[in-house]
Amino acid sequence: MDAGEKDSGVVWYLGTFTWCSGRGVGGWMWYGSNMSSRVLSGRRRVFPAKAVPVVVPGYQLTFDMAGLPYWEPGFGTIQPAEPRGARGGTGATDCQVGEPLHCVAFLITRHELERIIDTEGGAGNPNFGYRLATVECTSYDGVAMRGVTLVNTERVATGLHPSPRYHGILMQGAVEHRLADEYIARLGRVQPYVPKTAGQRAAKYIAAALYAPLVLPTAVFGLCALAFGAKTPRAVGTYNEWATRLVWLIHDCVLAPVFGRGA
């Protein structure tokens, strides 16, 4: 199946679960938290017409999408795969031995695709957060497909780990959609970040105290926009990105040297 097929009007969107769309229904391929129906349908109000497990050669899952240190250090994104045998720059990737990415392709509408883009990092701003990218993939039964997925616009950080919460959602989605057992096992070997020292636990609340006043107004705005079906302005995503970068700058220069790393 091809994302560019005009007759059928369908496209697949790929990601740690992502997708793409055509005239009516579209496909989206998910590799991260959107693999979980609890997140995709429950939180984003997206109800795919079809879900297909796929393999994406040449890519690997990393957690280099920076979140909030000590709380949600890294979110999922995909990057070109490292050579087989490479130790890797993240230490948290699920594909460090050169194995391909596994994810789920979802069949969705264009409106649902726009909703996902609007509620993901960056709010659709191509310069920050996630952007759409076209990738080639193959379903488990051997059907070649082309779809779109969300990837990080720039690799701001490496070596980040997911939180136990986020890692649990990924595992739940992978099991729910029956990804290959060996891939689930590799995903299970990813080490979530857990504060281990008293200093790291203290810094966790310092980071939250710094971050909350910066993003609370835009978070409320975004929730209201989602509730009323309005599109979140790109300026909101841009502001949130710079607020996140500011907190990470404070982490790297002050919190990490004093209390220990939060990633």
UniProtKB/TrEMBL annotation:
Documented EC number(s): 4.3.2.9
InterPro entries per the UniProt record, alphabetical: G-Glutamylcylcotransferase
Catalytic residue list: 120
The UniProt record lists the keyword Membrane: yes
Single Gene Ontology MF annotation: gamma-glutamylcyclotransferase activity
Swiss-Prot/TrEMBL keywords: Lyase, Membrane, Transmembrane, Transmembrane helix
PANTHER family: GAMMA-GLUTAMYLCYCLOTRANSFERASE
Protein name from the UniProt record: gamma-glutamylcyclotransferase
